[in-house]
Amino acid sequence: MARRTNRMLWDYRSFQIALALVLAALVVTVVTEEEEKEDEFKQYDYQGFLPVEYEEDREAFAWRTVEERSENMAPLKKAGQGMRIPFNYIVVLKVGYSAQVVDEVADRLLRACEVNDLECTIMGRYHHVIKGFHMEVPERALNETRTWYEVSYVEEDQIFQQEHVSDEDQEKMEKLQQQVDETKKHMEKILDGHKEAGEVIEQHSYREYPDDDDSGVDEEKEVDFGERRYSEEDQKKMEEEAKEKWIDRLLDDPSKKRKVAWNLDRIDQRLLPTDDKYEPAGDGTGAYIYCAGPGVRFKHKDFGGRARNFFDALGGDGGDCHGYGTQTCSVAGGSTWGVAKNVTLLGLRIINCAGYGHTKHILQGLDAVAAAGPKGVIQLPFLGAKSNVTDMAIKNLYKLGYLSIAPAGNNQGNACFLTPARVEEVVTVAGLRDDVIDERVIFSNHGKCVDVFAPAGKITGASHKSNKKSFTHSGTSLAVPHAAGVAAIIWGKEPELTVSEVRERLLNDASKVEILYAEAGTPQRILYTSANPQPQPEPKKEGTCDKEGCDDEVKVEVVEE
């Protein structure tokens, strides 16, 4: 009996060991597979399998869009991850078809759905910026539509987001930026200390070598003056200056009593420091700015009766129930907070109260502008994953004489992954942090698709909650109205200019200055307009320093051993 019990225990223990080994092998296999996938992901692009940088590849993967192709069917362009609106599609006809054909194809779809007892809805027909229509249909009707000869491609309707930074996120970013800046200042202080120490040693330590024709002493002589450090007076002064700058930067110290908002003050001069004045090259009289977004509070006193509703894709009166629409419109053309203080402002509501819009709403708004709107500047303060149909509509608007301005985005990434920032004809604007130093604001996107920098941190404009109140917020969507205002000033002064000439003038006039953390490949130029234009600043020579006090003599105490 005892032997049987021992054998049973042994068999049970053997079973436990075998099970443990099997589980361990499974874990090793899973981990190995995950590591292999991770290694493969690190090395290759998700589309072309080309070697790319790891971080860039992750971002490309996050914003990727794919295209579904089938024989004898038009391509289906998929929306970005999490952006798709189920059963909603944009049908784009081939180049050359007229508006009449758009209606004929749309009506054909409705008849086919009726015959087959399918529930189908046409929610928008586009006759100007593209030739096509929006449909809400089941998959069977989608596949049928893709087989029609007139159809070039179909794109899934997707969500676009108003580009803004919440108060909570802004606070987190500022705290992070403060930590980064404090670390940077600390490191600069250490490096400066090493540099000064090296200069002192270089001046006071020497070596003597015998001349070629001298057979005398050939021993090296070295003098070491020991440790050196900053005086307590200089250390205290540096700490006080840093503290004062942080108060001004993060708390916007009211003791400064600025007459002009920092963002306006920065764009009318080439270089820092600002002079508490705003003297632009004009006021935008005779020009138009379309304030696309979640609507506008037209009766706000900052607009002075110059703002009116042009089109509401959501079926309302163009009023603002979100806040950013009124603010961005005010920064573009308000009498107090605006860049172009006498421009005509046209409301173009394509974003809902939550700050989101659909491709169909954007196309409806842009099509309405192309159909009956005066030539002007269009603010597009939203972004989404790559959308071919939206890109095409904006390109066609440019051909018709409208200049679109878009934000670089608030993802701290590459603007080239996003629509409409990626469109060549668009003026894509990245964000400046403040006027303490020319520095990319921490949340702003960057990259070669950026055209110019403009203020984006803590920008004040009109509030949607009252006809008198103001509102302060951050985001690259608030950099957009600065560029829109400058473009309106150019167009107002010279209405005969073409859209390409206005765009070229805006970018050529921008100040070519060094921008901290601009990131490699990002054009370093800041929006500029001035009643007394100054020449471009001289390129900074290598080894020079433009920081405050860098030319001052540093007091050094030498401590002898």
3D shape = globular
Sheet with the most strands, sense and barrel status: 9 strands, mixed
Oligomeric state as shown:
single chain
* Estimated share of beta-strand residues: 15-25%
Termini separation (Å)? 87 Å
Helix content: 25-40%
Mean pLDDT: 81
Number of helical stretches of at least 4 residues: 12
| Parts with pLDDT < 50 across at least 5 consecutive residues | 2-10, 27-54, 199-230, 545-561
- What would you call the structural class? alpha/beta
Secondary structure tally: strands: 20
- CA radius of gyration is 31 Å
Would you give an account of this structure?
- By secondary structure, the chain is α/β, with parallel strands linked by helices.
- Strands 1, 2, 3, 4, 5, 6, 11, 13 and 15 form a 9-stranded mixed sheet that branches. A 7-stranded parallel sheet has the order 9-10-8-12-14-16-17, sandwiched between helices.
- It has helices at residues 2-43, 54-62, 99-115, 139-146, 167-204, 232-251, 262-267, 324-333, 359-372, 388-399, 480-493, 499-509, and strands at residues 67-68, 76-77, 84-93, 121-126, 132-136, 151-162, 228-230, 288-293, 307-312, 344-349, 356-358, 377-379, 382-385, 403-407, 418-419, 427-432, 452-455, 459-462, 470-473, 556-558.
- A hairpin with a 5-residue loop joins strand 4 and strand 5 (132-136).
- The protein contains 12 helices and 20 strands.
How would you sum up this structure in a few lines?
With 561 residues, this protein is an alpha/beta fold.
Main features:
single chain, 561 residues, alpha/beta, nine-stranded mixed beta sheet, 36% helix, globular, disordered N terminus, disordered C terminus
